[in-house]
Design a protein that fits this description.
The protein has 321 residues and is an alpha/beta fold. It has helices at residues 16-27, 58-67, 81-86, 88-111, 147-166, 192-203, 221-233, 254-262, 277-282, 291-296, 305-317, and strands spanning 6-9, 32-36, 50-52, 72-75, 117-123, 169-175, 177-179, 205-208, 216-220, 245-246, 250-252, 269-272. 46% of the residues are buried. Bound molecules: serine.
Length: 321
């Protein structure tokens, strides 16, 4: 069997920081190159091969891929929804520019007889205020109101186009809000559901920037990592959606997660001070229909709200005092 050589961009991000170790465990630590922007996180320095560089620099990325004989890219670099509303030009440049570069490099290499498989993350942010919000279907209206969402819809169409036109093997998931304890997310709208655990453990209280009643689809990181690797390992004949797959685990609103936390920390109190992110959340689905992913490549989530909350508190509790 040919050895996989994997490149992960955005390796220090919320998903990258957990995907890299998972891939290293599976494919060997010398076969997974982590691409960091400026610095290498302390605990990652000796964990495997890494590079520091600018993911927006096409020549740099191409050289990296060629020099190391990369066969699979997890292209995770991106500016999330809330940060993207503060700097839409940056979100467009990073999210669209780097994706187009990676696709074009893969296309060039394919012309030279070298196949590269690509994973690219989409998001529930691809949906918008005109999308049906309950059990949002796989195929539906995509009219997002954020620049982040615009880059996700355009990116989905682009990867689908490159699959059809150039036969590149690109796979994608529309991640819901991801909850994790190892690396905090940055600049997202679903981040309240991570911050709430820091508030609970440090101060036994949390002021949510989303209102009570704001349902959003969510997933625990362990499930998100497994979904990503399972999608990439599935036989290509099973991948019938080449834009991006809906996936989800649970849907909840701030009051419900607070209630679940109270089962462990009785004094915990939640209060509400919604900001501009409320409007973004109100434009996204409350729940997702992921039956295509479940049927096509057998996606199953393992963590519900209760399991997720108790695992988060256990793990985060050992590092946050
Ligand atoms: N978690 C992301 C965000 O809130 C959604 O893709 O921006």
């Amino acid at each position: 069997m040919k050895t996989e050589k994997i490149l992960v961009s955005g390796a220090a991000g919320q998903i990258g920081s957990e995907l890299v170790p998972a891939l290293r465990q599976k494919y060997g630590k010398d076969n997974v190159f982590a691409l960091y922007h400026r610095t290498v996180p302390k605990d990652a320095a000796n964990a495997g091969v890494h590079v520091i560089g600018d993911a927006t620099n096409k020549d740099f990325i191409e050289k990296l891929i060629r020099e190391h004989g990369i066969t699979t890219i997890y292209h995770l670099v991106g500016v999330l929804s809330a940060k993207g509303e503060q700097d839409p030009d940056l979100a467009y440049a990073v999210n669209m520019g780097t994706l187009k570069n990676v696709l074009d490099i893969a296309r060039q290499l394919k012309n030279e007889g070298k196949e590269i498989k690509i994973f690219w993350p989409s998001s529930i942010a691809a949906f918008g205020p005109t999308t049906p919000r309950d059990k949002t279907p796989q195929r539906t209206i995509l009219e997002p109101s954020t620049m982040y969402g615009v880059t996700k819809v355009a990116g989905e169409l682009l990867v689908n186009y490159y699959f059809r036109k150039y036969a590149l093997d690109i796979r994608s998931l529309r991640y819901p809000g991801i909850i994790s304890w190892k690396t905090p997310p940055g600049g997202g709208t679903t981040d309240y559901a991570v911050e709430i655990f820091y508030g609970a453990l440090k101060e036994k209280k949390y002021t949510s920037f989303l209102n009570a009643g704001t349902y959003l689809p969510m997933m625990y990181m362990d499930d998100a990592i497994r979904a990503t690797i399972e999608l990439m390992e599935a036989d290509s004949s099973k991948i019938r959606i080449r834009t991006s797959y809906n996936i989800t685990a649970v849907s909840f609103e701030p009051e419900e997660i607070a209630r679940e936390i109270k089962k462990h920390i009785a004094e915990f109190e939640i209060s509400y001070k919604p900001d501009f992110r409320q409007q973004i959340a109100d434009s996204w689905p409350k729940s997702i229909d992921d039956s295509s992913a479940r049927a096509d490549w057998n996606w199953r989530h393992h963590f519900g709200l209760a399991e997720m909350v108790s695992d988060m508190l256990k793990n985060l509790g050992s590092i946050v005092k």
